[in-house]
Design brief:
single chain, about 675 residues, alpha/beta, Rossmann fold, seven-stranded parallel β-sheet, 22 strands, globular, nucleotide-binding, Helic_SF1/SF2_ATP-bd_DinG/Rad3, Helicase_ATP-bd, hydrolase activity
Length: about 675
Amino acid sequence: MPDASPPSSPSGNRVREVLATAVAALGGEERAGQVEMAEAVAEAMESGRHLLVQAGTGTGKSLGYLVPSLLHGRRVVVATATLALQHQLVERDLPRLAEAVGGAGVDAKYAVLKGRSNYACLHRIRAGVPDDQGALIEAPVGSLGQKVLELRAWAEEEAENGGTGERDRAPRHTDREWRQVSVGHRDCLGAARCPFGQECFVEVAREEAHQSHLVVTNHSLLAIDAIEGVPMIPDYDVVVIDEAHELVARVTQAATDELAVADVERAARRSQRHVDGDEADRLAESADALADAVAMASPGRFDTVPDQLAEALALVRDAARTCLSAYPRDSDGEADAGKTQAKGSVQEVFTTAERMAKDAESDVMWLSEGGDRFPPRLCVAPLEVWGPMREKLLSDKTVVMTSATLMLGGDFSAVASSVGLKPSERVVHGETVGEDVPDDALPWVGLDVGSPFDYGQQAILYVARHLPPPGRDGLGPAQVDEIVDLVDAVEGRTLGLFSSRRAAEAAAEVVRERLPHLTTLAQGDAQLPELAKQFVEDPHTCLFGTLSLWQGLDVPGETCQLVIIDRIPFPRPDDPLMSARQRAVEKAGGNGFMQVAATHAALLLAQGAGRLIRTTTDRGVVAVLDPRLATARYGGFLKAGLPPMWATTDPALVRKALGRLAGG
């Protein structure tokens, strides 16, 4: 359990004083919700109780946790889900905050930590890139080679000028191009053995983190450090998890492994020049057995792993283990990058094959569909993550989780349970809710500080109750007609959030055809930043897309006065992990649909609806084209997680309201 009384915790007066100084210096205005949040975060840090704080858009939640974090007596980690928020913290909020309060006896030194593959590798850049046999080669030819040379030149400039070497600062590139100038943790030689270890961007970032009071990182790196036990972050006392509605998905992603036949074949080829015996050949033979087994297996989740596949995985595991043992030991002072990276690829194959061969009840395994460009892959993910999170993070650190959407169905219980906190452990008015709370309980507080927005006056929630329920074949004629009527009424100004790329593209095609005087963009037409820029610059524009638009787009003002959601975003029935989790809940006597599918949908729905109102002057409509939000029994649970907008099912009334908005 976290230490109940960390040292040097700030008083409420001190928090309010520094927060007021910061807000004034940054040209903002005091918000009651922000003050309440800052005091609650400071109290959580002082008491060791975990805190879930829902802070609506416009609250200023970043300052609400950054100020008490800087005032805390020990190192604090801030973990975000998205690069956009990480950039906001590091490029805007923290520099301005440090300037405002750093001279007032506040340790405002901060650093950023990311996974190794997010930084350029000077050894790979200067010594070459290993080929499939593990031999070092120069940059590839053609357009790929030109881009790699450009990235190498950029990295050298970063090294010379004391830059960070981070991927986000690099010239525009693809994943394939970046892989030519970076390495994962298994391919790294290690700072002590690398001739460029002193200059290494990762080592420099880690050293800065060790010297800093506050470390900004991401959910995935936090999970690797705290849950998987791979030391990545300097010792810390408290972690603040922003965008906490994403935490379970990101932790799951970090703990998911994949294995393809090509991975085994590549590891065998790369081992050929480093292993003297027939061990690499045996690894290649195991890849053939795996290929046969995969060809015989059906895509989807395995309730029971087929015998042939189980035998092939055991064969790959054993062959990889034997191959690893056959690698010669490094001599003193030797730093053979080709051998290190070849051995790393075998180690990765072994680790994944071993996990899959165990077929543990705590894991879910499936075979992806594959396609023309992507062959099928075996995937394995944890059935749940709340257990490891409770045991390895919540029991050891004080955790503050914050987001604009943490209350589902009007309550914190769903989100708290998903991350490892029990509803019976919640503290209300100083007392835990449950009776006979055990000694190993993890007390937590849930707080909703509201929003500065008047949703009842600023926004309408329109549920198209008259439409037929959505079908499996995508958008029907009635839904398409509704979209065109709504977009026409507001003269563009529409963000369309769709459950599939196919639905988004189909809607965009029809709107272009029927409303040619408007500009209609679809996700995939260009890179997302370019689409967002065009959307912001011209109000008579529609932008239609899928999941990345549901959560990552911030477009205040008249640019976005209508958000269309085509259907309740339940997970697909054939989603291997979600269906397995739902079945596990039902097996334990719970309601799998409500605890898994409806909770997933409620979070996404709230995030999608949150795209509409971003400032106190924004006005608009959230239009849900799925009548089940009004007619189904679970509709009330989903609506309780949405901002308190004025609600209607009258299409004529909504079109008139949109027309008034368009008319200014």
